[in-house]
């Protein structure tokens, strides 16, 4: 009888947590420079939108250097590892729970849509403060030769890192300040997370059996799934970003309150195109991010010997 190794001794949920965390951290780091430019597009309309993608990249390189493209990425990775771990693991757990509770439920894409939506909301609630901190750090434009923020209003603070930003944000308004913008995030994550898993699992069902383990097939399915899921929910992300940095905007800016009201306000005052600001960058980012995330997750599950969904899940 083959001796059990460390992988075999790990409980199933721990394997799924580990696979999800590695997949999320790896994918997020690959697209970090595009994420930084996208956030600046979403929150600093006048300064960056006029210069376009290339111009914005050149400006960041000149003012902040290569590391400027990764500003806020530490907070991003610190958030995405637990977020992706909880997201993927809870998706599998919700899926199993639904099947066990309702044995005759249709095990098709609708199940993935429902389980994915629930898992997205669960992951957001656990990790949202880190997403807020990531946005605030990425929002700063800092000169490498001067600690003063370039182009920032007098109301803005300069954060020196994740813990400093976390402490100052908490001081501003306690727990509520750490969850500012969470409403549009939850409204957006339910359809996005659900649609992402729905499209990915549905596309995989149509992959010929001989290509089931093909990395290219998984990359393709993940790319399309992320692309389609993001398109439907992007305006909610713009609202969330603007809510997160609202305290740093000029005092004459009206306060954003409520998800739907904020969407209408941005469309009226900034133009409806602002609701899709940075979407082209997001398309460039989402394709590799979703593709790499799903592919690494499936690969890690195989490495950790996570049983197929068609097999009964047995805890070690």
From TrEMBL:
Family membership noted in the UniProt record: Belongs to the mitochondrial carrier (TC 2.A.29) family.
Source domain of life: Eukaryota
Pfam families, A to Z: Mito_carr
UniProt KW keywords: Membrane, Mitochondrion, Mitochondrion inner membrane, Repeat, Transmembrane, Transport
Membrane topology: Multi-pass membrane protein
Solcar repeats: 11-97, 107-206, 213-303
Record has Lipid metabolism as a keyword: no
InterPro entries per the UniProt record, alphabetical: GDC-like (IPR002167), MCP (IPR002067), MCP_dom_sf (IPR023395), MCP_transmembrane (IPR018108)
Matching SUPFAM superfamilies: Mitochondrial carrier (SSF103506)
Signal peptide positions (record): none
Organism: Psophocarpus tetragonolobus (Winged bean)
Official protein name in the record: Mitochondrial carrier protein
Biological process per Gene Ontology, one example term: transmembrane transport
Annotated GO CC locations: mitochondrial inner membrane
Protein's cellular compartments: Mitochondrion inner membrane
KW Transmembrane (keyword) present: yes
